[in-house]
From TrEMBL:
Residues in ABC transmembrane type-1 domain copies: 53-237
Short name of any one Pfam family annotated for the protein: BPD_transp_1
Membrane topology: Multi-pass membrane protein
Assigned protein family: Belongs to the binding-protein-dependent transport system permease family.
Keywords: Cell membrane, Membrane, Transmembrane, Transmembrane helix, Transport
TM spans (from-to): 47-76, 88-109, 115-135, 171-195, 215-236
InterPro entries xrefs: MetI-like
Subcellular location as annotated: Cell membrane
Protein name: ABC transporter permease
């Protein structure tokens, strides 16, 4: 808690400034105050946490799972074969230049309002940081350590499992910390553009009613969900990479 003390203090100051500006403007539909947003979230807690949050989390977690499988597989393939890297990497970059807001309606036309139209959007914007970071991690292995293992008779499989994977693990967890907030954003955007439930859909519905606090309430829930997911990843990272502090 102590290491986050300054962050908590800064957040509190910013919220106070926001509260003061919102009260001065006094226009709830334009800029609701943090206290009004919290009140609205509490008032809508059942529909937000029991109906729309599970829908958004389903899209987020399924999209993340597919992104991890796809991203790690591509990273391994590129690290093992330079020709694959030259063929795949430019295509991956191109996929990141296409606006999500342009693709989401197309996926809705293809898959309807099912969960898969939203999962594809989430996967599309999250697999890239996972792929690039894991690929960089696999390439970061020290050459002298590889040569040492070779002199001891280690095979390429042994080098990959016992050296390259441990070196890539910190990069993998770093990529997850990037991908999780992006996946939450991607799920919300896809729901905003075409869905029948979810926090993004609910936020859009509140906007049509000019309910400023109602628009921000699901955003607050989204932020809390992202923070919790990143905290879980931090815990897993500290448990799995416990050898890092000993180096």
């Amino acid at each position: 808690m102590k290491k986050y003390k300054s962050s908590i203090l800064l957040s509190f100051i910013l919220l106070l400034i926001w509260e003061g500006i919102a009260r001065y403007i006094n226009a709830m539909y334009i800029l609701p105050s943090p206290t009004k947003i919290i009140e609205k979230t509490f008032k809508l807690r059942k529909v937000l946490f029991l109906v729309h949050l599970p829908a958004t989390l389903s899209v987020t977690l399924i999209g993340l799972f597919i992104s991890i499988i796809l991203g790690v597989s591509l990273a391994i393939a590129m690290s093992l074969n330079e020709k694959i890297e030259r063929a795949i990497y430019p295509i991956m970059v191109v996929t990141q230049t296409i606006p999500v807001t342009a693709l989401a309606p197309i996926f809705v036309l293809w898959f309807g309002y099912s969960i898969w139209s939203k999962v594809i959007v989430t996967t599309l914007i999250t697999f890239f940081p996972i792929t690039v970071n894991v690929y960089d991690g696999l390439r970061s292995t020290r050459t002298d350590m590889e040569e040492l293992l070779v002199t001891y008779g280690a095979s390429k499989k042994d080098i990959f499992i016992k050296l390259k994977i441990p070196y890539a693990l910190p990069y993998f967890f770093s990529s997850l910390k990037i991908a999780v907030p992006i996946s939450v954003i991607g799920a919300a955007i896809s729901e905003w553009l075409g869905a029948q439930c979810g926090l993004g859909y609910f936020s859009k519905r509140m906007m049509t009613q000019l309910d400023g606090a109602g628009v921000f309430a699901p955003i607050l829930v989204l932020s809390l969900a992202a923070v919790i997911l990143v905290a879980i990843i931090n815990i897993l990272e500290n448990k799995i990479i416990n050898w890092r502090n000993e180096i």
